[in-house]
């Protein structure tokens, strides 16, 4: 029972870190993005803030997964295989969810 609680806490902390990073980027984008920044009296021009938001989230996700992979290797070396396999499972499941979402969007 104690081992299961340790694994769940490990995964909840990792998911919380990812949600916190996404939340901070969203708040930054929400309070700093102005679609009418380049509008003037003669024209109505919008800037594409959604693309920048996507790129930031994509880069944060890639760095998070890289950190998760490095931590997984470190946990294997430290002989904490249960936590390492929890990281591997989280990585595989989240990437499968993204792949299914991308498949359904096409």
UniProtKB/TrEMBL annotation:
Organism: Flavobacterium crocinum
Ranges that cross the membrane: 7-31, 51-77, 84-104
Protein name listed in UniProt: Uncharacterized protein
Alphabetically ordered keywords of this record: Membrane, Transmembrane, Transmembrane helix
């Amino acid at each position: 029972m104690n081992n299961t609680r340790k694994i769940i806490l490990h995964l909840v902390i990792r998911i919380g870190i990812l949600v916190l990073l996404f939340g901070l980027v969203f708040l930054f984008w929400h309070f700093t993005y102005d679609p009418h920044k380049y509008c003037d009296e003669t024209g109505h021009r919008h800037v594409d803030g959604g693309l920048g938001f996507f790129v930031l989230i994509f880069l944060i996700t890639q760095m998070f997964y890289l950190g998760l992979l490095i931590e997984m290797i470190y946990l294997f070396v430290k002989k904490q295989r249960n936590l390492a396999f929890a990281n591997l499972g989280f990585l595989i499941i989240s990437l499968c969810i993204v792949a299914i979402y991308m498949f359904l969007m096409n």
